[in-house]
């Protein structure tokens, strides 16, 4: 049995075709549309921002921040927002997101609601398989190597000589596995971009250590707690199976960031692991760490264990890359199994990382006008794993991170994992209240 | 430093300093000015300096975030940031750091100071009552390198980031954890501290006393302030959080409000003052046309009017005049800016002085990437910071 849901795919590029798999009419040879294929890439030039890689966070490394004014480019304001505004003035977006009304929903949590009637228009619903978190890259489907150069804002990489570098016009060295930052032509906020690690390697949507560290570096580079990155796995509302993170700027605390937490463990590397409390979606919070690598390592190990165990999840990177929320979810599966309330489905809200974090993009005026904390909570509660399942999933995660990270004594106060035999995980079929994962 | 002194004196006169000096011995508190770039501290009491170990010169002009570090609770910082955004009082318990890097718990009460006449927030007062020591495990001194904290501050000062407020760069926080010795860990593992009733009471009394001095002296300067907003904010007034955000953008630009008669300037950046030679008071509330003069080209003005009428962006090269009557070619980029309702709330005009006097090129100028960056940063700030309506705290 294969679990599928029908949904309107998000158009992230102007080069995305109406239907996945539909034969794309393409002109051949130096095709004249400045694409990223070999026909056009040879002579292409894109800005290149090389961040300073901090292997060990020492005082010396911080010196660079003393004089940010002297840096060639302030990363967030000048580069991301400036290049983004340029693409906006060039009319590359499907709509003007700043013309979409946004409000804070009254209540304790402060959910943020945006009315975005344009995002899903002109698209037919497509079937998506939601029961496989890892799927091989399929070059016949839309992927980011098919976007036009004008949609790419800049190349983003670690600096070779350890200093921040900016080159307004750098050649694209395909053999050097460049990572790109591109616009999302269906933005949900001003400055909405995609980070595509090692774009020409055509990696499927799957977290690996190196890529996750790159995403943390981008958050750190922005040096602004309101510039966040997000990740959706397949089965958790990613629609494109080509490795990518999303990011945008919104100067509001997200409800998930305000939720209280309970610390459950601290790793050797100083990473604090907590459980979210009083929030409709159950999840883990990873914070701090002696170095960015410490945090990156433990979170990516956790993500890898989830994807290897076929558990869909979302990740939010906030607070300049020092705080990461990890949220396993089961909405798509419930949806495929017909267990989601029709009323919720009618809203057509796809609970991906931003919705789960508390920034809801609503497609109907009615839902926007009637948006209440209770409604938002009800939707997100459907996304969450049950308490029992969450504890099982936690056990998997802690087993995985304990393999590589020695956890201190606190780890003993973790939920007992006697009952869990991890070898059975990929095929576990739980009761109807649970997330059902079928293979 | 001049602007910091002025920020205090213009509302309370320098006489108020003497009165505050008396309170100053007793109460650890600071006053900050959200209208100055980086929301700096403009007054710090003796008691506050004693507790933190900094000298006055090391503190004035800096952001309040300079006292925060790795053990400072993120949620408390978030709450302060929210209160500043919503221009309301708040109190939190959090960890601050002394100059020598040792952490200490404070009960922090923040209150906006409103201008009676305009309803604008002119200052924030922050009273920081240190919490009585309870048992710290571990003992021994905490060696957190304070040099690094200075860097945070410097970074804050230089930073171009948009709304980063009251906050140490988190990169630096990561560093701080390196000193993960007993005390810091203890601070972290300790349950969030509560202020005792006594501590709360003393904060309330302190705040009352400070406000009675401030309001008294504001009567003398004629620029009355109060603790509760006593008039609705004047039409077109920018929120202090928006002013703080805009203050971080280092280029020359102005915001004008098309919904007010004659479309006056409602915000002008420091760089704009420098470029044109005017002071802020001389330009706020006026239409931009005062920049024009004898040889200003009518066709450029026509383009500007057209762009405003149609709510479209435009770039023109126009001859403008400084206060001292000297002229300069202004490569001006204008763009509408929408607020959270999706409607055009302002126009942003970004000026770049154009050294090339080749008028023929006027029609084909494209906006500079620096100008686009300003437009982007302004759009993002205006949109985000107008979302508070019906906010989470009621």
From TrEMBL, chain A:
Residue ranges of every copy of the GDPGP1-like N-terminal domain listed in the record: 76-248
EC number: 2.7.7.-
Locations listed in the record: Cytoplasm
Superkingdom as given in the UniProt entry: Eukaryota
Any Pfam family: GDPGP1_C
Keywords carried by this UniProt record: Cytoplasm, Guanine-nucleotide releasing factor, Hydrolase, Nucleotide-binding, Nucleotidyltransferase, Transferase
Enzyme's top EC category: transferase
Domain GDPGP1-like C-terminal: from-to ranges: 255-402
A GO term for molecular function: hydrolase activity
Biological process (GO), any one: glucose metabolic process
TM segment ranges: none
Stored PANTHER family: GDP-D-GLUCOSE PHOSPHORYLASE 1 (PTHR20884), GDP-L-GALACTOSE PHOSPHORYLASE 1 (PTHR20884:SF21)
Family, similarity comment: Belongs to the GDPGP1 family.
Protein name as annotated: GDP-L-galactose phosphorylase
Organism classification: Eukaryota, Viridiplantae, Streptophyta, Embryophyta, Tracheophyta
From TrEMBL, chain B:
GO MF annotation terms: photoreceptor activity
Region (Disordered) location: 181-202
GO process annotations (BP): response to blue light
Pfam families: PAS_9
Keyword terms of this UniProt record: Chromophore, Flavoprotein, FMN, Photoreceptor protein, Receptor, Sensory transduction
Signal peptide interval: none
Residue ranges constituting the PAS domain according to the UniProt record: 16-63, 265-287
Entry-linked Gene3D superfamilies: PAS domain
UniProt cross-references to InterPro entries, sorted A to Z: PAC (IPR001610), PAS (IPR000014), PAS-like_dom_sf (IPR035965)
Residue spans of biased composition, Basic and acidic residues class: 190-202
PANTHER family linked: PROTEIN TWIN LOV 1
Protein name: PAS domain-containing protein
Organism from which the protein derives: Medicago truncatula (Barrel medic)
């Amino acid at each position: 049995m294969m679990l599928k849901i029908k949904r309107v795919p998000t158009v992230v590029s102007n080069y995305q075709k109406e239907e996945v798999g539909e034969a794309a009419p393409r002109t051949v040879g130096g095709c004249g549309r400045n694409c990223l294929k070999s026909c056009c890439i040879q002579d292409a030039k894109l800005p290149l921002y090389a961040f300073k890689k901090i292997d060990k966070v020492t005082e010396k490394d911080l010196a660079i921040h003393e004089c940010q004014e002297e840096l060639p480019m302030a990363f967030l304001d000048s580069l991301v927002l400036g290049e983004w505004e340029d693409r906006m003035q060039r009319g590359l977006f499907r709509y003007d997101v700043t013309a979409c009304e946004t409000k804070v929903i009254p209540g304790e949590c402060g959910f943020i609601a945006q009315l975005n009637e344009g995002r899903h228009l002109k698209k037919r619903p497509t079937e998506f398989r939601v029961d496989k978190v890892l799927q091989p890259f399929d070059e016949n489907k839309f992927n980011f190597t098919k976007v036009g150069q004008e949609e790419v804002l800049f190349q983003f990489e670690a600096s070779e000589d350890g200093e921040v570098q900016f080159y307004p016009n750098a050649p694209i060295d395909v053999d050097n596995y460049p990572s790109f930052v591109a616009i999302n032509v269906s933005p949900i906020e001003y400055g909405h971009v995609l980070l595509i690690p090692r774009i020409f390697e055509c990696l499927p949507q799957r977290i690996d250590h190196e890529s996750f560290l790159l995403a943390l570096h981008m958050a750190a580079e922005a040096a602004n707690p309101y510039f966040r990155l997000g990740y959706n796995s397949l089965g958790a509302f990613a629609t494109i199976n080509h490795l990518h993170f999303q990011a945008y700027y919104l100067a509001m605390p997200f409800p998930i960031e305000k939720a209280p937490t309970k610390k459950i463990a601290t790793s050797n590397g100083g990473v604090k692991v907590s459980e979210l409390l009083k929030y409709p979606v159950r999840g883990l919070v990873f914070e701090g760490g002696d170095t960015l690598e410490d945090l990156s390592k433990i979170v990516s190990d956790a993500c890898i264990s989830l994807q290897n165990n076929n558990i869909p999840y979302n990740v939010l990177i906030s607070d300049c890359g020092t705080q990461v929320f990890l949220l396993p979810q089961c909405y798509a599966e419930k949806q495929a199994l017909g267990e989601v309330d029709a009323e919720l489905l009618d809203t057509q809200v796809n609970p991906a990382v931003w919705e789960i974090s508390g920034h809801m993009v609503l497609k109907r005026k009615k839902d926007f006008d009637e948006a209440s904390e209770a409604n938002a909570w009800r939707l997100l509660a459907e996304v969450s794993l049950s308490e029992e399942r969450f504890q099982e999933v936690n056990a998997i995660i802690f087993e995985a991170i304990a393999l590589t990270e020695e956890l201190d004594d606190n780890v003993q106060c973790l939920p007992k994992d006697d009952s869990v035999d991890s070898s059975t995980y990929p095929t576990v079929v739980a009761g109807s209240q649970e997330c059902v994962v079928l293979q | 430093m001049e602007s910091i002194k002025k920020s205090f004196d213009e509302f309370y006169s320098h006489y108020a300093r003497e009165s505050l000096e008396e309170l100053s011995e007793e109460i650890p508190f600071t006053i900050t000015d959200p209208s100055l770039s980086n929301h700096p501290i403009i007054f710090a009491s003796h008691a506050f300096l004693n507790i933190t170990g900094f000298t006055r010169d090391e503190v004035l002009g800096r952001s309040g975030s300079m006292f925060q570090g790795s053990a400072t609770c993120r949620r408390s910082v978030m709450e302060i940031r929210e209160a500043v955004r919503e221009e309301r009082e708040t109190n939190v318990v959090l960890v601050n750091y002394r100059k020598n890097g040792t952490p200490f718990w404070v009960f922090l009460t923040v209150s906006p100071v409103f201008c009676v006449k305009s309803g604008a927030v002119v200052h924030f007062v922050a009273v920081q009552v240190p919490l009585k020591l309870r048992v710290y495990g571990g003992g021994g001194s905490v060696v957190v390198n304070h040099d690094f904290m200075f860097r945070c501050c410097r970074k804050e000062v230089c930073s171009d980031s948009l709304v980063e407020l009251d906050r140490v760069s988190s990169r630096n926080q990561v560093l701080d954890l390196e000193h993960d010795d007993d005390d810091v860990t203890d601070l972290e593992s300790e349950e969030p501290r509560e202020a005792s009733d006594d501590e709360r009471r003393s904060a309330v009394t302190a705040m009352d006393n400070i406000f009675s001095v401030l309001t008294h002296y504001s009567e003398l300067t004629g620029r009355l302030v109060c603790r509760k907003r006593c008039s609705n904010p004047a039409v077109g007034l920018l929120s202090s959080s928006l002013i703080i955000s805009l203050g971080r953008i280092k280029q020359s630009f102005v915001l004008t409000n098309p919904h007010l008669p004659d479309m006056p300037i409602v915000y002008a950046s420091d760089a704009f003052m420098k470029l044109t030679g005017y002071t802020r008071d001389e330009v706020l509330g006026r239409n931009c046309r005062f920049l024009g003069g004898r040889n200003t080209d009518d066709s450029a003005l026509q383009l500007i009017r057209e762009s405003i009428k149609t709510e479209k962006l435009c770039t023109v090269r126009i001859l403008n005049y400084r206060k001292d009557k000297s002229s300069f070619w202004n490569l001006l980029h204008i763009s509408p800016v929408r607020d959270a309702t999706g409607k055009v709330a302002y126009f942003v005009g970004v000026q770049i002085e154009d050294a090339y006097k080749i008028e023929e090129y006027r029609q084909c100028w494209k906006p500079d990437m620096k100008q686009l960056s300003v437009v982007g940063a302004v759009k993002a700030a205006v949109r985000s910071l107008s979302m508070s309506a019906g906010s989470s705290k009621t």
